[in-house]
Amino acid sequence: MGVIDIIVFVAFIASVISLGIFKSKDEKTDGADGASEFFLAGRGLKWWLIGFSLIAANISAEQFVGMSGSSAGYMGIAIASYEWMAAITLVVVAFAFLPYFLRAGIFTIPQFLETRYNHWARSIMAVFMLTILVVVSFAAVVYAGALPMMDLLSQADVNLNLTICCWIMGLFAAVYVAFGGLKACAWADLIQGSALIVAGGIITYLALDQLGVMDPTELVDATGAVASNAGGLSGAERFSVLNDSKLHMVLPASDSNIPWTALVIGLWIPNFYYWGLNQYITQRVLGSASLKEGQKGIVFAAGLKLIIPFIIVFPGIIAFNMYSKEMSQLAANDEKIVKANTELVEAFEKDAASDENPITVYTFDKGWEEHNKEKAVEVAAYNELAVANAKAAGKEVQEKTFVGYKYDSAMSLLIGNLVPKNGLFGFIIAALLGAIISSLAAILNAASTIFTMDIFGRYIKKDAAQKTLVKVGRICIGVFVVIGCAIAPQLSNPNFGGIFKYIQEFQGYISPGILAVFIFGLINRRAWRGTGVIGLAINPFIYGALAKFAPQIAFLDRMAICLGSVLVLMTIIGLIKKEDKPIEFTSDVDMDTTSSKPALIAGIGVVIITLILYGIFW
Length: 618
What we know:
This protein is mainly α. The protein has helices at about 5-25, 35-40, 45-60, 60-70, 80-105, 110-115, 120-155, 160-215, 235-240, 260-265, 270-275, 280-285, 290-305, 310-335, 335-355, 365-370, 375-395, 410-420, 425-460, 465-485, 500-505, 510-525, 530-550, 555-575, 595-615; strands at about 360-365, 400.
């Protein structure tokens, strides 16, 4: 790592932290509005700060590692649905959810549930969200961020182990969020969000450029086969020719990750939960100076979301074309992947030796086949029998997959091989680290707000002074960092099935129930207040039962079933037991709550562009 790279890296990180602290130094956290100043930036955020902050809080190692890795694998551009559907979701949130939240003057999303239902609904959601934020989101982002940081820094002869990297990132995030709260996060995100998009654009450009000049015999297509028709083409043309099978948004209904059925209902659930009801995202818009500023900021973020697949998903696909051999070798040397494949081999041999008619198919890619040629022949022969048995029995084939490539290394391989160490390398690493830290800071800020306002201020000390609330919030940040950083290194266990899936799967236990409770509460205002408590409490049991007894159902489809089940149950209860009069959502905040027409027009434009992109890549 050259001196210039080190200078750029240190200067970037220092500027981010310094700007956040400087912009929040005049906060009067001990005044009458101290909690609002610390947790919601004094409700004074402008649209451009909100937009960049939403993107910076959202994009992290989960995308740069998990999403680029998924695109390098079989999913290809289909994984971009998480981004492009989010653009439409954001537009809906801006005009369907945000007006209610800002008029209610709430600090947290659980607080809104008390307005519609009761304090038990608020408390249950607060506990659910604290668990998700600290145990799942924070720990997963720290872990996923530590992996590429270790790889990239090792290429620069800086060797740190996983645990140390986790603690460094966690402490970085805690420093400025504990000092300046949401305002510090928002201003730091301004640098980090813009740098993130620039860095992603640079990586995409370098990847396409290198793809165009490489010897075709060193390239592979989407299946891992050596390219035979890529000669004399530009980088963009080669990208299209080599990856035709990956440039489609639709995957089969049997797919375990994003079946086409999930595009109908399932994928909308985590999207609406994440962008509309997830505290660490919505906290940015709860701090809006007005409804117009909030709506413009959200629509701005929606426009930026359309760009993300081009700077994360496309590079992941290209990385496989150029570096499949390296991915294969990394998989062969990765203890976790080797262990998982060894366990699958044992399961295969048990099925193959069984007297029963097997219906489980063991798929494999060329990377695994290259290192296990004899076993691959056995597996292929067995699979023909398993498919025939399943067809004869009228049952669906169950698939298990041998992993032959370390797909999550896609972004690290691109950066390590393509980015020159002349200052640009330092900038790219700093931008990626900044994105991770930004997400961690957002999570810490949200978790501390929920504990302070929904638990401490609601049950432990109802008459706490503003200064006390801020102090408790800062203490929470330290406690949550310790918990999250202690858990993060444990996520290396292959049983978690990958960070991206770990986060989404875990959220299935709560997000459908929360979304159902909010939808029902806004539409039906006469139903008994206790329906919200029942809806929140029943969802984990329904999802858990589906996960145990119907594991073949994709987790996104399980979410759809949960959402429908909870809504039906709440509707039945609401018909049986009603309140004397409809619940009123009264305004409790001194701000302009007039909707923005320019934002609405721009939002409609974002939706149209999103539909066009789906049409192009359908």
